[in-house]
Amino acid sequence: LAGIDIAKSQGARYRLGPEMEICGYGCSDHYYESDTLLHSFQVLAKLLESPATQDIICDVGMPVLHRNVRYNCRVIFLNKKILLIRPKISLANAGNYRELRWFTPWNKARHVEEYFLPGIIQEVTGQETVPFGDAVLATKDTCLGTEICEELWAPNSPHIEMGLDGVEIFTNSSGSHHVLRKAHTRVDLVNSATAKNGGIYVLANQKGCDGDRLYYDGCAMISMNGETVAQGSQFSLDDVEVLVATLDLEDVRSYRAEISSRNLAASKVNPYPRVKVNFALSCSDDVAVPTCMPVQWRHHSPEEEISLGPACWLWDYLRRSKQAGFLLPLSGGIDSSATACIVYSMCRQVCLAVKNGNADVLADARKIVNDETYVPEDPREFCKRVFTTCYMASENSSQDTCNRAKLLAEQIGSYHINLNIDAAVKAIVGIFSVVTGRTPHFSVYGGSSRENLALQNVQARIRMVLAYLFAQLTLWTRGLPGGLLVLGSANVDESLRGYLTKYDCSSADINPIGGISKADLKNFIQYCIENFQLTALRSIMSAAPTAELEPLVDGQVAQTDEADMGMTYAELSIYGKLRKIAKAGPYSMFCKLINMWKEICTPREVASKVKHFFRMYSVNRHKMTTLTPSYHAENYSPDDNRFDLRPFLYNTTWSWQFRCIDKQVNAL
């Protein structure tokens, strides 16, 4: 309703909202419930009755059950009358999307049926049935056709045939989530749609966290004849954003007039059913009304995307979970420091939104800090209220990482705690020794690899236990109400390799960097140094990544991540992209890498690297079943929940695949 109000106040005659906007896109298996359908119709009735929806065509999204089949639909109405219910034709069913689980695609091209409205809608509209199917709207002055999200991405997009049949305005309601470096693809698809065929394309997308790992990243846009004329924000804390444009239909007609190939194809197109609408989008005395001119689309850099996307997702999660803030185990390494910087970026976004007059953000901030008069103005001061960082030292920790964590906490303003876990570690190991009569030792003191790993795991797991204890009670000790959400900070590459202890500090409530690569996090840290003036990050950037779980040698860290993993982070990123995006098994990955790495590795060395990766990946895959919910940012994420569906009990010898590799190595 707020969006419709704003659109009307700015003179709009047609208002488009995002996909499934009435119930929310992320209902998942709740779509099966009749309650979801009932409540959607109840909301639709409220919209139809509202004075705000009069004299403007409103296009809203909701699930509809037609002849006992559930469809993802657009409901288009004007002045308390439903004009058309348009079901989705191409369903999204790859990656994070599971639409075929809940919905059926409308496979009857250019076919319309009668839909019998439920009683609560009949009472408002006075209609018993309305058109349901693949049709377009013919107003007094133009013709409008609908696409829904995935249909834009399909090879046979409806806008192609609709455009040939004289549709001049295409609308697209989307539920498209953020992935690093993806925004330009959406923009290019929209602009190319109107460049080839002429026309006006209007796209509305969901924005924000819809209750899961995804952040829907807005980027609403309006395009005409191949050029963007209006651009919405990709990331913001605004719950409602409206994009309005005034365009000249004659520009579409003159553009199309000289595309002879289009006009030849249009002469033999199969026509769409048209729903006649006694309403015009233009008015007779609009000659002097200025039209919108093309704009240059501004894309965020990947570092800006990391700074803004996960920050907005964290804010949505914090305000909706009704917690009082976050707690982060801050180790002084790149990953936890990047997580801290994202929280700081969130605080900056909140202060900026309040400064710009966003009353909703101010109200949420006051609830979170439990102060009805509070106004967040300084990001560091707000950070102190909502963000607690904790350095958990052990006898294996260096003074360098302790100092780095402390200095970064000071610069971002977090409430910082220093503690030592040695007493707890000794107590746990002591219990084991009393029961078994044996005491495990690190390998540097003569212990076996099993002892060495177990002693590292104990330290890591105790940190998780302490993180949750401090998250629950830190505010209590300070005389403040509420609890804190625990943040994890394992990156996407470490998760893929399984380079983490199950149920250590990678286990948390949510993880804003779990879908981001080590390489991108390093670039993000550099961005924070330059844009947030966080000089403490310089020494963090220059230090070698380390878990600090093995004894120091002469007071210095001897353990490094890349040595432990047996591969570099750069290699790991390549393995991840080949495994997931290129769909490569061990043999295919080997075949691709002998060419990619021919200047630096022999085929035998490539074979050894590929085998090592797949052994480690398969041995550790079980850890993905308990992976902390992470912000989805990469298409090679190993998230086992719904994105990367694989077994977690493997034959880790990969006997057949590795034999194929060996045979190829010998031939080479």
UniProtKB/TrEMBL annotation:
GO cellular component, as recorded: cytosol
Gene3D superfamilies hit by this protein: Carbon-nitrogen hydrolase, HUPs
Keywords for this protein: ATP-binding, Ligase, NAD, Nucleotide-binding
Quaternary structure (record): Homohexamer.
GO terms for MF: ATP binding; glutaminase activity; NAD+ synthase (glutamine-hydrolyzing) activity
Protein's recorded name: Glutamine-dependent NAD(+) synthetase
EC number(s) reported in the record: 6.3.5.1
Family to which this protein belongs: In the C-terminal section; belongs to the NAD synthetase family.
Phylogenetic placement of the source organism: Eukaryota, Metazoa, Chordata, Craniata, Vertebrata
Organism listed in the record: Opisthocomus hoazin (Hoatzin)
Keyword Ubl conjugation in annotation: no
InterPro entries: C-N_Hydrolase (IPR003010), C-N_Hydrolase_sf (IPR036526), Gln-dep_NAD_synthase (IPR014445), NAD/GMP_synthase (IPR022310), NAD_synthase (IPR003694), Rossmann-like_a/b/a_fold (IPR014729)
Domain CN hydrolase per the UniProt entry, residue ranges: 1-249
Keyword ATP-binding: yes
Residues making up the signal peptide according to the UniProt record: none
Pathway involvement of the protein, from the record: Cofactor biosynthesis; NAD(+) biosynthesis; NAD(+) from deamido-NAD(+) (L-Gln route): step 1/1
